[in-house]
Write a structure and sequence with these properties.
17% strand, alpha/beta, two-stranded antiparallel sheet, elongated, P-loop_NTPase, ATPase_ArsA/GET3, ATP hydrolysis activity, ATPase, ATP binding, 10 strands, eight-stranded mixed beta sheet
Length: 325
């Protein structure tokens, strides 16, 4: 079915943004969450684009495919006839595309690459790289196919929380510095999209002290810069600790005996110590949940996957995101 003929099903109401930016401290699983969100948003005949911009090829590794080129490629099907496509944005290729689009320098641009001028330009002006990356994301988000958008939603696997504010804000800085011309116009268009209701920045965290603190800091920075923050997504979460008193050594011993297992003193003492450690850990997690709740943002918890994030695990995370309140 051609893009123009696809049914105009709306995205799930709990994920209303057209561009979903996913960030998080390194190690929190933001790439897995971004992929699961792209699957969730592609359900029931929709089409989404999953984009990465850091050159890590994390999406290809996650799905066990060949490295992604600078071209939109079919990645996987989604329930109900939907489709997820993927793109790894390369700053050099994006600059060539930009030069051809605005300055008609197709062959000349390729010659510049051979001379090393493009690499030189992005090295002496590091912000230019992020301008090119976000510009390509904006183009994919707003592109039309016939009478409707080419993609129902775009999901960006963005840089980590320590760099997300600078990454998203670079286009506004460029628009402020550039006086006239295509660079100023392009930068203003990207900056406007990133601060509009069409965009939501979601922050992925774990129930651990450092990721939670980085989440709190990132939300404050994004809010100060004027970016719309969407959800805080707690990855690999365990259910809150049940209310009630701790299990006693006597109860552990009775339980071991009932199961036909050894119930000697050392075994019971080891289990009791493990139970105490787990209770302390879970109490800390509950406290961190409270810290996140104080942000006043929608909070979504994704289950811990004991077997790791394989295709079945991605599907489970995707279903959890669809069910998010």
């Amino acid at each position: 079915m051609r893009a123009a003929e696809r049914p105009a099903d709306p995205a799930p109401t709990q994920w209303p943004a057209r561009l979903n930016v996913v960030t998080g401290k390194g190690g929190t699983g933001k790439t897995s969450v971004a992929a699961a969100l792209a699957l969730a948003l592609a359900a029931d005949g929709r089409r989404t684009l999953l984009v990465e911009v850091e050159g890590r090829q994390g999406i290809a590794q996650l799905f066990g495919t060949e490295p992604l080129p600078y071209a939109e490629r079919h990645l996987t099907d989604a329930p109900g006839g939907g489709e997820v496509r993927a793109l790894a944005v390369d700053a050099e290729e994006a600059l060539l595309e930009y030069l051809d689009m605005f300055y008609k320098l197709g062959a000349a641009g390729r010659a510049l690459r051979k001379l090393g001028a493009i690499d030189f330009a992005t090295t002496i002006a590091p912000g230019l790289r992020d301008v090119l990356l976000t510009g390509k994301v904006k183009e994919a988000t707003t592109r039309k196919a016939g009478q409707r958008r080419a993609y129902d939603a775009v999901v960006l696997d963005a840089p980590p929380t320590g760099r997300i504010g600078r990454f998203l804000n670079v286009t506004a800085e460029t628009a402020r510095l550039a006086k006239v011309g295509p660079i100023k116009t392009q930068s203003e268009g990207v900056a406007a999209l990133l601060r509009s209701p069409m965009t939501a920045v979601h922050v992925v965290t774990l129930l651990e002290e450092m990721p939670v603190q980085e989440t709190v800091d990132a939300v404050a920075e994004l809010t100060q810069l004027g970016f719309p923050v969407g959800r805080v997504i707690v990855n690999a979460a365990r259910p809150p600790l049940p209310a009630g008193r701790p299990v006693t050594a006597a109860e552990l011993r009775r339980g071991l005996l009932a199961a036909g297992l050894p119930a000697d003193r050392d075994t019971v003492a080891g289990l009791a110590a493990e139970a105490r450690d787990q209770r302390v850990r879970r109490e800390l997690e509950d406290s961190l949940r409270g810290d996140l709740a104080e942000l006043g943002l929608p909070l979504t918890e994704l289950p811990l996957l004991p077997e790791g994030v394989d295709r079945a695990g991605l599907a489970e995370l995707s279903r959890a995101l669809v069910r998010a309140d």
